[in-house]
Amino acid sequence: MRMILPTGLRFSCLALLLLPTLGELDAQRTGDPAWFRASAQMVLVPVTVTDRDGKTIEGLRAENFNILDDQVTQQIVAFTAEDAPCSVGLVLDISGSMRDALRGAQGVAQSFLQTANPDDEFLLLTVSTQPGTVSGFTTDTAALKESIAFTSPGGMTALIDTVYLGLNRMRQAKQPRRALLILSDGMDNYSRYSKSELERVALEANVQIYTIIVNGLPSASIPFRPSLIGKPIDQARERQGPLLLEDLSDKTGGLHFRAQNDTEAREAAEKIGRALRNEYVIGYKPPGFGPTGKWHRVHVKANVPKVNVYARNGYYAP
User: Fold this and answer.
1) Which residues of the chain have pLDDT under 50?
2) pTM above 0.85?
3) What are phi and psi of 211, to 5 degrees?
């Protein structure tokens, strides 16, 4: 029998949620829906389905999905597909490597904010020599747009440190559906944290990471000089950075795009906004968690042709 989750539980982006008994439910409705004591354990997996152009596919049902936990097919016992308020951390790269791309990135961030619902809240962080917190969580998108417009490029690029900070700040989010949107060229040359440390935190966090990778090409108004060609070490970082961001998105169930111009970047922002609005949440009860902290690999498939399925690729047992 299919079980529909109560409204307060439907949209949790937690990889793991403890399902309360009916007797506990009324007492818990006024609390934070992301954390419950419970008598039974359930895994909830947020899922986004798009066509080959990145447009979100709506109207699917539970029977359109197949979900595996450690290669074992699981019975879907909960399924929802509704819009819900979100908490989103915006990570805007304003470092020196973004000098030629920042204006476009600012416009993309402002376009994304236009997709917001009234109950959405946003956090704004900037990437430079050190991570910068421009704004804590707020629903005032007009003030955020103004803050974004006044950012100016400069400094080194501590991208990994800023994303790491963003994931930790998301613990203070009010809404159970949580995401980071990173706008960057992927370059990093000044972080203290390593890629492996960031990946570990990303896999443990209940946050989906979306990325728009913009190419900061020299402006046509700037005459070409050999000094504009990056050194080999910088060229290597330029290749590795975008791959890291895409990998973070893949592992946490977010979408990623590479944009060659402002039009592509704005289209990507709109697609991400729609994806956040049209998530499916699939719930199942695993046969047993086993040892505490064990990694469980999750794979979600759809029996719909020519679509892409985005979901977390696993979770750590509690």
Assistant:
1) 1-40, 217-229
2) no
3) -135, 140
